[in-house]
UniProtKB/TrEMBL annotation:
Keywords carried by this UniProt record: Oxidoreductase
Domain FAD-binding PCMH-type: 11-175
InterPro entries: ALO_C, FAD-bd_PCMH, FAD-bd_PCMH-like_sf, FAD-bd_PCMH_sub1, FAD-bd_PCMH_sub2, FAD_lactone_oxidase-like, Oxid_FAD_bind_N, Vanillyl_alc_oxidase_C-sub2
PANTHER family registered for this protein in UniProt: D-ARABINONO-1,4-LACTONE OXIDASE, L-GULONOLACTONE OXIDASE
TM helices/strands, residue ranges: none
Name of the protein: Xylitol oxidase
SUPFAM superfamilies reported in the protein's UniProt record: FAD-binding/transporter-associated domain-like (SSF56176)
């Protein structure tokens, strides 16, 4: 096999071959025959979570499924579909998802497996929209789970440890419009005194900073209602479109300036029709209890010079609590600190370790699809239940790799 890398190019997969099934029956046959296997989604993980020394299995070639439920509150989709394609088809039916991530280019099954998220104090991560799963177990058996089943909360954000997810049923709601505004130079004094109100000021709110100064550089505010002034807690309305990374052209970004538009053309920061970037970056993210949000931001500020030296931009977001066993938002409303680094692993890893030292005591949980050095999954309240579940679905460790062995034991 020709060398295959992830989207960022920092990981070269060790798989001996890539399998491209065209049906669920082929997935079942390939899984049953494999000795080692991992599922390859859209390649947006920044570590070896998807790697294997056996077979990689891509679900991209499965027949597209977008089946609206009879009561129009759910949609059943295949395991290879990406959010951008699904969103367009849902909107054409007058329906919407509750939230989207920054990039619409990522696969639904991969994003769900890693509890990837958007932003909003009232909104759970993308995995919380899952109402049903169809999983191929290690022996090739197709297992269907639904919300309310005992194993369901462990099977949703399962890191691929239970087997390929060949179909998902998602909650949907009526389509809606949003307006996106960008404000600049949010004073640090406002962050310290009014952070909760700032983060709750819209349907989705993201704060961006390079940590080069003390103020927040940009606020991306997505609202149902129009804003009535040019000021947001002391930040001023941008005089034109902005990219989250300073100096980058904004043509790839979704429309700003308060122009109303469909939910799927405002919730992501980036447009589906553009390549999001060259991939010349690394990413890390830590989720903390929202109750320690101020302390977490101050802890990073103490390292601002170390962080800024290897950083492109940092995004601060919120996610509502959920009951999913391996979700970093399990049983707690969360603040997420997301770091887009330069593409230099040797320079970035020592800074990642420094951040883990200061954020760990505050209860930080890493995004497991990104760059980290420590992850205390054994401290998650339902960790033992998850390892037992994984043992039943995959008793011989067919879906394990080096990283999962380290995380799960």
């Amino acid at each position: 096999m020709e060398p295959l890398t992830n989207w960022a190019g920092n990981i070269t997969f060790g798989a001996r071959r890539v399998l491209h099934p065209r049906s669920v029956d082929e997935v079942r046959e390939m899984v049953a025959a494999a000795s080692k296997l991992r599922v390859l989604g859209s390649g947006h993980s920044f570590n070896r979570l998807a790697d294997t020394d056996g077979d990689l299995l891509s679900l991209a070639g499965l027949p597209r499924i977008v089946e609206i439920g009879p009561d129009r509150t759910t949609v059943r989709v295949d395991g290879g579909i990406r959010y951008g394609e699904l969103a367009t088809r849902l909107h054409a039916e007058g329906l919407a998802l509750h939230n989207m991530a920054s990039l619409p280019h990522i696969s639904v099954a991969g994003a769900v497996a890693t509890a990837t998220h958007g932003s909003g104090v009232r909104h759970g991560n993308l995995a919380t929209a899952v109402a049903g799963l169809e999983i191929v177990r290690a022996d090739g058996e197709l297992i269907t789970l639904a919300r309310g089943d005992a194993d369901f909360p462990g099977a949703v954000a399962a890191l691929g440890a239970l087997g390929p997810v060949v179909a998902l049923t998602l909650d949907v709601q009526p389509s809606f419009e949003l307006r996106q505004y960008v404000y600049e130079n949010l004073p640090v004094a406002a962050v310290r005194s009014q952070l909760e109100q700032i983060l709750a000021g819209g349907y989705s709110v993201s704060l961006f900073t390079t940590w080069a100064g003390t103020d927040i550089d940009q606020v991306f505010l997505k609202r149902l209602e129009p804003m009535t002034g040019d000021d947001y807690f002391g930040a001023t309305l941008a005089d034109g479109p902005r990219h989250p990374v300073p100096g980058m052209p904004a043509e790839s970004c979704t429309e700003q300036g308060g122009v109303p538009g469909p939910w799927h053309e405002r919730l992501p920061h980036f447009r589906m029709e553009f390549t999001p970037s060259s991939g010349e970056e690394l990413q890390s993210e830590w989720h903390l209890p929202r109750s320690v949000a101020g302390a977490a931001i101050e802890a990073v500020a103490e390292l601002r010079e170390r962080v800024a030296a290897v950083l492109q931009v940092c995004e601060i977001r919120t996610i509502a609590a959920d009951d999913l066993w391996l979700s970093p938002n399990h049983q707690r409303d969360s603040l997420a600190l997301h770091f887009t680094w330069i593409a230099d692993t040797d320079a970035v890893l020592p800074v990642v370790a420094d951040l883990e030292k200061v954020l760990g005591p505050l209860g930080a949980r890493p995004h497991l699809g990104k760059v980290f050095t420590t992850a205390a999954l054994a401290e998650y309240p339902r960790f033992a239940d998850f390892t037992a579940l994984a043992g039943r679905f995959d008793p011989a460790g067919k879906f394990r790799n080096e990283l999962l062995e380290r995380l799960l034991g």
